[in-house]
């Protein structure tokens, strides 16, 4: 049996197992720490930074930071909530997110996160980047306008599908997802059954032919905010 | 695919053992041979090293010196750092552009020349400066720029340039260096830039146990000279204490902080001392392999450094049974390829592993799991040099130099508005005012301490001191006189950070662009008083949520000028009289509709 570690999140005592991250221990305790890039079962990417918490007064990403005896974690403070809102707003203005006609609306984690935080309109100016859409594949398409560079497709394709269909190219604001072919998704080994097709938190990688199969109103986050499944675990 | 391309790439990959962790060497070699890493080359490299082609593209697209599109035979990279701009680089740029008939980012039709901008190339003391392939061209004046253009157009071989303008001092004139760079050593101290006995520290170190060596380093209280200031002895202790037989010693010679050039001088004049320090580190932590990560801009020093390494092998100072002891250690040089982020230790490790220079998630920290997931100590050039001296003269001797909490001396790279730019060795605790006097700075408005990731301070801070507890610095000091526009300078540094961000995490990738845009709005006279608070909050979020040191410091040029020169900002912002957003131009917004309707708006 592994060692039990006791610490607090917002003053509430939490017990976790040695080797767990703050996010893992919080999930088990029914405390939701917002996150966007995190993909269950993969090595945490740590790129969106939405899961930033204060650990003994220092900012850390909860998805990568291991728990330690007696640490004081802050999750729901005004300061942290504001930083998370800022990050989500940054992701909105960085791409072109038109929720009203996006297939993913209602199932989109970015949109759901904005609703959870009460974001109505970003305070930052939209950057309106010009990005490409790749609809070459018979069953799947990529709309990079909506990509938030979370890396989930990269990881799922590599770790779960064993294919490496996606990777990042470029750097800084020019960083983007690229497929493992000269240019087109159709020229990769991506299959409809690949995990990489299911993990996109936004509407950047979507399956063809199933758009709007689930009507608005019956979608994942239509009634309950993102994270409520974790919060329901709270004893 | 041409036989030449295929044969050459096969040979390059084979020389690197078809090893994917040597990807940097492979793509650098292909770039050098063919001017770019083409799609065909990418496929072949991928198949030979057993990776996916997108992984090769991922690496090539990350580094400024690498490209898919072929570049010219001579790639001219003109440094557009703030200091170069202060010294008239814009005029030089015009001459280069006119003479070559191409703009920046373009390649001439004959394929001979490519003209590019480069961020700080480590020559702020000899600015404006440019790289012609690997050749440094310094102190460019209008006349010299025109002359250089005539010469290079007459004979497109940059290696002929240094002799034409005179070689620099010291090892810059070494046959293996042959550079016009000068050392610009303006003040020597008692640790690094004095006469140092060769390998005295290594000899004494090998008489001790590794634990005793670490204890000596701990006694000296030396802290990391790259800027972060982590206690070196402690880092070594962690690395030694980590499980596993295979460990590594990495030297960070990727000094890229704008305004820094002190490692250039150490690499040129104290290479032996550096390798000695790395060898001592290898002995102390239990490593048999070291890597010197040399920034791509300093490729002109590579042949010389390889020669120093070879001579050390011959002398029994590297290799097996060093100095007759049961201790093996060797060093290889890993070239960078134009990425500031690789000066961040975990990015440097990624780059050494043949990957994009993305920082890694921590923990684990490098002493636990670093290069190839093995315990690794990464230290700065200056730190290793200092360690050699500490082992020779003793930790107590070193701890007696400098100030409380900051032992030893610090090399400062000083440039900007002063009479004597160059490298100065000061004991820690020196005041800014003393420095300003020594370098002949007059009419000083502001001083950049620790480069743009540090702070821009005003005259009320000139009595403060250089040390870890007050003004900490990796070594970059840039002086601005009263005529300089600090907002413009802050903007240029933000452009630098935007360009150099790896793009991995949200706040750094997006936030810095937003800081830059807000600053542009203010500079254009369209800012409101609330924009200052907006900038402060935005900067705060970027600093607190970024994944590595780049984003954790990148808003500093704006945040520290906002703090120390607030009046400059306040004079530019004003409340909007009509209650509308000042940066929103209604006339421009309706102009397209007006054109479509064929009539003017009656309201606006």
Helical amount among residues of chain B, as a percent range?
40-55%
Biggest interface reads: A-B, 42 and 39 residues
Identify the strand order in the major beta sheet of chain B. 6-14-13-17-15-16
Beta strand % of chain B: 5-15%
Rough outline of chain B: globular
List the helices and strands of chain A in order. Answer: EEHEEEHHEEHEEEH
Unreliable stretches of chain B (pLDDT < 50, length at least 5) are none
How is the biggest beta sheet of chain B arranged? 6 strands, mixed
Provide the CATH topology of the largest domain in chain B: Rossmann fold
* Number of E-state strands of chain A: 10
Question: How much helix, percentage-wise, in residues of chain A?
Answer: 10-25%
Report the sheet-strand fraction of chain A.
15-25%
Question: What is the tally of helical segments of chain B?
Answer: 25
The CATH class label of the largest domain in chain A is Alpha Beta
- The Rg value of chain A, from CA coordinates, equals 18 Å
Structure notes:
The complex is a heterodimer of chains A (235) and B (604). Chain A has 235 residues and is α+β, with helices and mostly antiparallel strands. Chain A folds into 2 domains: 4-76, Ubiquitin-like (UB roll); 86-207, Alpha-Beta Plaits, CATH 3.30.70.20. Helix content of chain A is 20%, strand content 17%. Chain A is built from 5 helices and 10 strands; from the N terminus they run ββαβββααββαβββα. Chain A has a 5-stranded mixed sheet, with helices on both faces. In chain A, helix 2 packs across helix 3. Chain A is globular. The two termini of chain A are 23 Å apart. With 604 residues, chain B is α/β, with parallel strands linked by helices. Chain B has 5 domains: 3-60, no CATH class; 74-166, 3-Layer(aba) Sandwich (Glutaredoxin); 200-400, NADH-ubiquinone oxidoreductase 51kDa subunit (Rossmann fold); 406-484, Ubiquitin-like (UB roll), CATH 3.10.20.600; 487-570, de novo design (two linked rop proteins) (Up-down Bundle), CATH 1.20.1440.230. Helix content of chain B is 43%, strand content 13%. In chain B, the strands form 4 sheets. In chain B, strands 6-14-13-17-15-16 form a 6-stranded mixed sheet. Chain B has a 5-stranded mixed sheet with strand order 2-3-1-4-5, covered by helices on one side. Chain B has a 4-stranded parallel sheet with strand order 9-8-7-10, with helices on both faces. In chain B, a hairpin with a 5-residue loop joins strand 13 and strand 14. The longest helix of chain B is centred in the last third of the chain and has 18 residues, at 506-523. Chain B is globular and about 90 Å long. The model of chain B has no long low-confidence stretch (mean pLDDT 97). The chains are: A alpha+beta (235), B alpha/beta (604). Chains A and B meet through helix 2 and strand 8 of A and helix 4, helix 19, helix 20 and helix 21 of B.
């Amino acid at each position: 049996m592994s060692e039990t570690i006791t610490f607090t999140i917002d003053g509430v005592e939490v017990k976790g197992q040695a080797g767990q991250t703050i996010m893992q221990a919080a999930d088990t305790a029914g405390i939701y720490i917002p996150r966007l890039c995190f993909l269950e079962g993969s090595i945490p990417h740590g790129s969106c930074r939405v899961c930033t918490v204060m650990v003994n007064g220092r900012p850390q990403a909860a998805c990568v930071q291991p728990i330690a005896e007696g640490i004081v974690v802050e999750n729901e403070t005004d300061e942290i909530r504001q930083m998370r809102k800022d990050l989500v707003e940054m992701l909105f203005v960085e791409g072109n997110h038109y929720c009203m006609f996006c297939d993913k609306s209602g199932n989109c984690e970015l949109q759901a996160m904005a609703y959870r935080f009460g974001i109505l309109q970003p305070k930052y100016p939209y950057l309106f980047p010009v990005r490409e859409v790749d609809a070459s594949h018979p069953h799947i398409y990529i709309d990079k306008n909506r990509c938030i560079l979370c890396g989930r497709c990269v990881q799922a394709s590599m770790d779960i599908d064993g294919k490496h269909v996606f990777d990042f190219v470029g750097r800084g604001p020019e960083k983007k997802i690229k497929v493992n072919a000269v240019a087109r998704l159709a020229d990769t080994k991506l299959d409809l059954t690949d995990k990489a097709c299911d993990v996109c938190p936004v509407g950047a990688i979507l399956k063809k032919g199933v758009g709007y199969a689930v009507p608005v109103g019956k979608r994942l986050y239509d009634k309950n905010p993102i994270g409520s499944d974790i919060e329901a675990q709270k004893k | 695919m041409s036989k030449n391309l295929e044969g050459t790439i096969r040979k390059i990959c084979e020389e690197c053992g078809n090893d994917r962790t040597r990807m940097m060497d492979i793509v650098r070699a292909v770039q050098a041979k063919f001017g770019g890493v083409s799609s065909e080359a990418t496929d072949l490299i991928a198949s030979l090293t057993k990776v996916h082609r997108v992984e090769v593209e991922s690496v090539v697209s990350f580094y400024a010196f690498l490209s898919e599109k072929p570049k010219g035979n001579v790639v001219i990279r003109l440094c557009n750092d703030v200091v170069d701009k202060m010294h008239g680089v814009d005029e030089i740029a015009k001459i280069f552009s006119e003479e070559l008939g191409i703009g920046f980012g373009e390649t001439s039709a004959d394929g001979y020349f490519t003209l590019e901008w480069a961020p700080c190339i480590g020559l702020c003391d000899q600015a404006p400066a440019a790289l012609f392939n690997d050749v440094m061209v310094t102190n460019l004046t209008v006349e010299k720029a025109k002359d250089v253009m005539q010469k290079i157009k007459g004979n497109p071989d940059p290696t002929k340039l240094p002799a034409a303008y005179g070689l620099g001092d010291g090892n810059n004139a070494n046959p293996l260096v042959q550079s016009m760079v000068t050392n610009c050593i303006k003040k020597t101290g008692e640790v690094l830039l004095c006469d140092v006995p060769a390998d005295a520290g290594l000899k004494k170190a090998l008489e001790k146990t590794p634990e005793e060596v670490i204890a000596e380093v701990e006694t000296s209280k030396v802290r990391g000279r790259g800027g972060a200031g982590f206690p070196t002895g402690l880092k070594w202790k962690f690395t030694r204490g980590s499980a596993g037989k295979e460990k590594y010693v990495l030297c960070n010679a990727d000094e890229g902080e704008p305004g820094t050039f002190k490692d250039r001088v150490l690499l040129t004049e104290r290479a032996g001392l550096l390798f000695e320090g790395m060898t001592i580190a290898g002995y102390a932590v239990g490593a048999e392999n070291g890597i010197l990560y040399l920034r791509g801009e300093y490729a002109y020093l590579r042949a010389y450094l390889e020669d120093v390494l070879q001579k050390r092998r011959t002398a029994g100072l590297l290799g097996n049974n060093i100095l007759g002891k049961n201790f093996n250690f060797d060093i290889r040089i890993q070239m960078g390829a134009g990425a500031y982020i690789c000066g961040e230790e975990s990015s440097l490790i990624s780059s050494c592993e043949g990957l994009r220079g993305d920082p890694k998630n921590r923990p684990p920290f490098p002493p636990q799991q670093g290069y190839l997931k093995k315990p690794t100590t990464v230290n700065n050039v200056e730190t290793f040099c200092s360690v050699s001296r500490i082992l020779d003269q003793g930790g107590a001797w070193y701890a007696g130099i400098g100030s409380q909490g900051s032992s030893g001396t610090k090399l400062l790279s000083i440039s900007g508005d002063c009479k004597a730019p160059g490298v100065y060795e000061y004991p820690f605790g020196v005041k800014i005012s003393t420095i300003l006097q020594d370098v002949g700075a007059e009419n000083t408005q502001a001083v950049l301490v620790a480069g743009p990731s540090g702070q821009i301070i005003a005259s009320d801070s000139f009595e403060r001191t250089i040390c870890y507890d007050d003004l900490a610095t990796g070594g970059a000091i840039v002086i601005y006189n009263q005529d300089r526009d600090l907002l413009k300078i802050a903007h240029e540094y933000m452009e630098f950070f935007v360009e150099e961000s790896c793009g991995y995490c949200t706040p750094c990738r997006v936030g810095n662009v937003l800081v830059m845009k807000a600053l542009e709005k203010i500079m254009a006279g369209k800012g409101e008083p609330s924009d200052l608070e907006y900038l402060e909050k935005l900067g705060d979020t970027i600093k607190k949520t970024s994944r590595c040191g780049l984003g954790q410091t990148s808003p500093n040029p704006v945040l520290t000028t906002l703090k120390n020169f607030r009046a400059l900002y306040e004079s530019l912002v004003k409340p909007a009289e009509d209650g509308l957003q000042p940066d929103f131009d209604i006339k421009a917004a309706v102009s397209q509709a007006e054109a479509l309707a064929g009539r003017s708006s009656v309201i606006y």
